[in-house]
Structure formats: C-alpha cells, structure tokens
Design goal:
about 90% helix, about 270 residues, mainly alpha, MetI-like fold, 10 helices, globular
C-alpha cells in the first residue's frame, strides 16, 4: 500500500471516529431534552425515553416488531433502490447531453414541487392497498433528488482535468476510475443519503394511509388506541433502523469513497 493511500485511509478513519463521537454527543443531548420535556408534560402527551424503550423491548420480545420493521425496510429500500438506479442513470445522461438536460428541467421541477401526499393519493388509485403504493411513492419522491445530484456531478467535471487525462494518454478505465467517478460520486453520495432519509419518512406515511402492515400501520393502530408509549416505541424503531443503515452501511461506503477520492487526487 502506498504512502498516499495509507494517509488517505488514516484521514478517513479519523474523520469517521470523530463523527461518531459527535453523533453520540448529539444523541445524549437529544435524550436529555426528551426526558425534560416528557417530565414537564406527562406520559399521556410524551413518554420518557425509558418508557419508550421499555415498550419497544416488549414489542421486540413478543415478535411483531421484527416483522413490521422488516416489511417497512423492504418497501423503503425497494423504492430507494429503484430511484438510485433510474435517477443516477438518467441524471448521468442528462449531464452529458445538454438537450436532455433542458428537456428534463421542467419535468424535474414538477416532480420536486409535487408533495408526496399527492403522489400517495394517485398511487392508491393506481396500485391499491399493497406494496405498490408505498414503493412507488418512495421512488417518485426520491427520484428528482438523485437525478439532480447525478446531473450536477456530470456537468461540473473539470474540462482541464479531462484534457490533461487525454494528453497523458490515460486509458478509458483509468479516466473512469481516477477522474470521472470520484468527482461524480462526490455529488451522488450526498443525494443518496438525502434520498435514503426521505424514503423512510415517506414509506411510513404511505403505510399509515394505505397498508395493513408495516411500522406506519402499527403507528395508526397505536394512535387509535391513544397509546403514546407504543407510538414513540415504533418511532424509535424506525429511527434506529435508519441510523443502523446509515452508520453501519453508508458510513463505511463513505469512508471508502473519501479514501478513493483522496488517492485519486494525489495521483492527479
């Protein structure tokens, strides 16, 4: 391993550890504020973190929480995966072609301006009460975010950098891995992160209104029973699943991308 790659790996690891401590501190502050607020308003309005986690522990021990979380994760990741595949591909095409970019601009403006609840109503009419409604709603809401990220990453490629790569006679593979992809991914990855967070919020909203299962449906049941502790327990399960995906999966990919970009920059 070269010294440049070692330094890039060390820098990325240090940044990851520092971000972990910062995240832990912010969670502690959030828990403290939550506890003080719950003690001020009472358990009927807002249960304490201990009550919420105890209720969640009971749901996990009894079994229904695991299946509901798995259903919600499957729907969210299916819609998110479709938006990543289609949005990234079409965004790259729009970034390369000025004509495609101009044609896509009004469509993307409409998609960004359309509230997810409107897409949910249409999806209910088209797909009914099933998996199709939440998956489609997640896809159509996340698609423009990823499309714009891919398009901007492609359009902002440094022309001089491409000329230098051409002058030194780099192979097509080296141009792709050392010049183009690191730059495009620097725009795509934040878009993927934003879309992932949005997918979890949208899928729960869609489940609450359109499906008999999933975390959203469980929230609807706990709301009808005025069970605030159960509602907070399901919300904690939702947020915990999202944080696990972000920090265990996406943060690892982010560190690899950061070290890759640093190595590519040092080589250039």
């Amino acid at each position: 391993m070269s010294s440049g790659s070692v330094q890039a790996w060390a820098a990325a690891t240090g940044h990851y550890l520092w971000s972990g401590w910062g995240s832990l501190a912010s969670l502690c502050i959030f828990m403290a504020v939550w506890t003080l607020t719950a003690e001020s308003f009472g358990p009927l309005i807002l249960p304490t973190p201990l009550e919420a986690f105890t209720t969640l522990g009971g749901l996990l021990q009894d079994g229904p929480a695991w299946s509901e979380m798995a259903i919600t994760a499957r729907r969210a990741l299916a819609g998110f995966g479709l938006s990543v595949a289609v949005g990234s591909l079409l965004g790259l095409v729009a970034g390369v072609s000025m004509t495609a970019s101009m044609m896509a601009r009004p469509i993307i403006t409409v998609l960004v301006g359309m509230p997810p609840i409107a897409w949910l109503i249409l999806a209910l009419l088209w797909f009914g009460a099933g998996d199709g409604t939440p998956i489609f709603t997640v896809f159509i809401a996340c698609f423009p975010i990823i499309f714009v990220g891919a398009m901007q990453g492609t359009r902002t490629l440094d022309g001089q950098l491409k000329e230098v790569a051409q002058m030194f006679g780099l192979s097509t593979w080296m141009k792709l891995t050392d010049v183009y992809l690191p730059h495009v991914v620097s725009y795509l990855f934040p878009a993927w992160i934003a879309a992932l967070g949005m997918s979890w919020k949208i899928v729960v909203m869609a489940e609450l209104l359109s499906t008999p299962d999933g975390i959203g449906a469980a929230l609807a049941v706990s709301r009808s029973h005025l069970d605030t502790a159960a509602s907070m327990a399901w919300i904690v399960a939702l947020v915990g699943t999202l944080l696990a995906i972000e920090y265990l999966l996406l943060e690892t990919i982010k560190r690899k991308v950061a070290s890759w970009r640093g190595l590519a920059s040092s080589n250039n």
